[in-house]
Amino acid sequence: MNAAVRAVTRMGIYVGAKVFLIYEGYEGLVEGGDNIKQANWLSVSNIIQLGGTVIGSARCKAFTTRAGRLRAARNLVEHGITNLCVIGGDGSLTGADIFRSEWAGLLDELVREGQISEEVARKNCRLNIVGLVGSIDNDFCGTDMTIGTDSALHRIIEIVDAITTTAQSHQRTFVLEVMGRHCGYLALVSGLASGADWLFIPESPPEDGWEDLMCERLGETRSRGSRLNIIIIAEGAIDRSGKPITSNYVKDLVVQRLGFDTRVTVLGHVQRGGTPSAFDRVLSSKMGMEAVMALLEATPDTPACVVSLSGNQSVRLPLMECVQVTKDVQKAMDEKRFEEAIQLRGRSFENNWNIYKLLAHQKPAQEKSPFSMAILNVGAPAAGMNAAVRSAVRIGICQGHTIYVVSDGFEGLAKGQVREVGWHDVAGWLGRGGSMLGTKRTLPKTCMEKIVENVRKFNIQGLLVIGGFEAYEGVLQLVEARGQYEELCIVMCVIPATISNNVPGTDFSLGSDTAVNAAMESCDRIKQSASGTKRRVFIVETMGGYCGYLSTVTGIAVGADAAYVYEDPFTIHDLKANVEHLTDKMKTDIQRGLVLRNEKCHEHYTTEFLYNLYSSEGKGIFDCRINVLGHLQQGGAPTPFDRNYGTKLGVKAVLWMSEKLQQVYSKGRVFANSGDTACVIGLRKKVVAFSPVTELKKVTDFEHRLPQEQWWLNLRLMLKMLANYQISLTEYISGQMEHVTRRTLSIEKGF
């Protein structure tokens, strides 16, 4: 929420509006007085990394009455506020819409009572409303993600990982209860991201007799050598008759029937607290800035809107339509129309649920398929690789295929380091960082004949390559060698996995979210270290090769003063302007600076050069320090996003490969020589797409290992604007939000 407050405040000030912060939610709006304060640029400095909300939040019974809303209207009119940005759940947003619909009547009443003049009423005749959804449950229909959900998933997964170690040590079963009174999103995604043995969500109660089936499956898992069981239950879980299923009931069931040592952990409000994740900080910043544009664009005929996330784009949707669909989900659950409830939650929720059911327990394939697939990792290690391997192996076994894994990438394939794997060989891989298979950067052209020999030896008909730019380039080399080697006329797919996020054909690569969070956490600590010393600027170098994604997104997440990247050329004049900006900043209460530099952003303006320049120009005003984050960005446990994303990509890639294998299978052999049989799978805007590597070659800068077009460059203007850079509003609108109509902005508008 704080990132949203910061973005709305700074964007509002940037466009010349007065911005007010209302403390303690609707209670502060009704009470007025010191609860409504005008903000300046520094009012929201150094809050982006804080959990909760610095302006407070409170439930307010008075606002549910007309008398309370009358007082609120009086307080807004006093300050000339006619635009309101509300951050909250569907109840808060519905209240805002009611307030808006009553606005004219409330002003008339204030005029009749003599509290305001008719002239004041005319001047403030319209109230514009925009909503940002803040809810850890992700229970609001119309947006892919609500503010706070990703951070809550981080808290849950941290606890699941910690509990897993003690459960393995003591051979225990743990029942974890997570929040979600009416929505099972947190339980579902944490179950998918942790490989939970059993899952309870309110949208899909278990079938009658579930107790027997659950205990049978838990027993089977233990009999195969597992030392633990994890059961995740949403607090609102129910059975088919609507009776609550409690965590203690599940625990007693396991103890009585199986005799397993079982513990219950209720996570409670720990899920609401802590430092916000990088995803939440960037999401909130994008939504906050879009909210200001929505208010400025509003007309008397514009309905109240809510700013939502669709893929990687901020969009505006009619508020009350979204609220109605959200209520329809609850109505479907109350009427026991559970399948419809899952569909109303959205395609992502439904996909998550179906994938969880596919991967949680082994189901015998209906028939043995004639196909065999090999899976390997290529390039530098990236978090989420193991999640993708696990899901690919398991879905391949479900399809009846023979599944091989290859150690050490293409080099291992050339050396014959190939082995067949089963369902349980990949148990426990979800939360592991790095690459369990081992990975190397070797490209096929250095050992092509040996690779071909082993493809023939193991009768490999499908090749799934999980890795970075080398994986993409390697598969391209294999495709181009098809004319020389018939053995390479097989189905191939690349799952992009690199912290650099530089693989063509996808907006996001596996591992980039974990790397951004690792860099963000380091920068948070660096900023905190400067709070005591004051007047200090840190130059922080990030990885990423020539791709500036990591620097840019980390810069937004930590509120950096600048982030230098190769794709956004800069000169000595830009560096001089940045030094002057930091010099001015040292005259305020915020006496510290943070500058990020992508490792290959400029041939001559190295990290050492920037340090010397800033040190020299800032002499007597501030001093400088260098931090090279290095390989800590590649390590650590995968974030919930990367675990979930890797799991989904692994499943979708193997299903696509299975379909292609059927298409090119004839007379007992596979022959795939068309371009569409070797693809990169990736998320493009909101859709998982398969792009032929031969087509992607046309839009790739091989010298710098980059796609020629990168969507995230639009975020650069947001980074600069929030850092108090002098860019024009027209430049911001055209570069960041092309769908916004350019128009003259009135400085009389108040927020």
Kindly list the characteristics that best describe this protein.
Rossmann fold, globular, disordered C terminus, alpha/beta, single chain, 751 residues, 43% helix, eight-stranded mixed sheet, four-stranded mixed sheet, 4 domains, 25 helices
Can you describe this structure?
The structure is a single chain. This protein is α/β, with parallel strands linked by helices and 751 residues long. It folds into 4 domains: 201 residues, Rossmann fold; 123 residues, Rossmann fold; 209 residues, 3-Layer(aba) Sandwich (Rossmann fold); 123 residues, Phosphofructokinase domain (Rossmann fold, 3-Layer(aba) Sandwich). Helices cover 43% and strands 16% of the residues. The chain is built from 25 helices and 26 strands. Strands 11, 12, 13, 14, 15, 16, 23 and 24 form an 8-stranded mixed β-sheet that branches. It has a 4-stranded mixed β-sheet with strand order 3-4-9-10, with helices on both faces. Strands 6-7-5-8 form a 4-stranded parallel β-sheet, sandwiched between helices. Strand 25 and strand 26 form a beta hairpin. Helix 2 packs across helix 3, helix 11 packs antiparallel against helix 12 and helix 18 packs across helix 19. The longest helix has 25 residues. The C terminus is likely disordered. It holds the Pfam family PFK. One of its GO terms (biological process) is canonical glycolysis. It catalyses: beta-D-fructose 6-phosphate + ATP = beta-D-fructose 1,6-bisphosphate + ADP + H(+). This is 6-phosphofructokinase type B. It comes from Zosterops hypoxanthus.
